[in-house]
Specification:
By secondary structure, the protein is mainly α. Helices cover 73% and strands 0% of the residues. The protein has a single domain, classed as Orthogonal Bundle (MetI-like fold). Helix 5 (134-145) packs across helix 6. The model is unreliable at 1-9 (pLDDT under 50).
Amino acid sequence: MTDLATAPLRRDSLLRAALGSRNFVVGAVITLGILLLAVVSFIWTPFPFSAQDIPNKFKPPLTGSHLLGTDYLGRDMLSMIMVGARTSISVALLAVGIGALIGTPLGLWAAARRGTLLDEIIMRANDLVFAFPALLIAILITALYGPGAVNAIIAIGIFNVPVFARLARGAALSLWTREFILAARVAGKGAARISAEHILPNILNTLVVQITIQFALGILAEAALAYVGLGAQPPMTSWGKMLADSQTMVALAPHVAIVPGLTIVVTVLGVNLLGDGLRDILDPRLRRSRR
């Protein structure tokens, strides 16, 4: 009865906290704006993103019908940014999804079997994956299967697995000694059921904040992989590939590098602000400490 009565109050409190958090509001506006660009690109772009117009190459921003100018092949930069948003965001989202869906259960499993050989094996395997950066994993996968967005997703996803495994294990260990977990064990619930019904809901806030952080890092990782030729391949484009294509033309037409570079910076900043705001909202102790 008490839970049902306080649930609406808690939702109202979270809404007020969200609207009162400048970081959350600014981050949400930027992130939603970029997501909207990506979604709209599926049905409309100002020009076909791969359409070449050589006579109009290197047009600066705000020239004619090209809001952000054109690149070295005369392609519309705004159209490429919109399609690049679709590629970069989808790669980052899927990679983070892989890391969260695999790493979180592993971390919960390790916490439930803490101090055992299984716990040690899982954590040492995580340490082994941490020893190989996402770029090195991508190079290995590319050597076997060739470059592409799918292989970039796999590489970044593999790197994210130990991040979520460690986070889930650490957060779960702090709960296994709590009274409500002991009560669940006395009631005859097994470790798997306790992890699913009691541990996971109580660490979900922490996982959500970490997802936003890893999403921002995933966008940077995708851009880095695309920059060295291991990400999306032609005819598709991404922000990192746009930077790679523009690196020898910065002196001739600075906007071809500034536009995708600034887009990456603004997007990562927005997602990080969103994550910082979510952390403040979901953790009342942080809200009180910042007042």
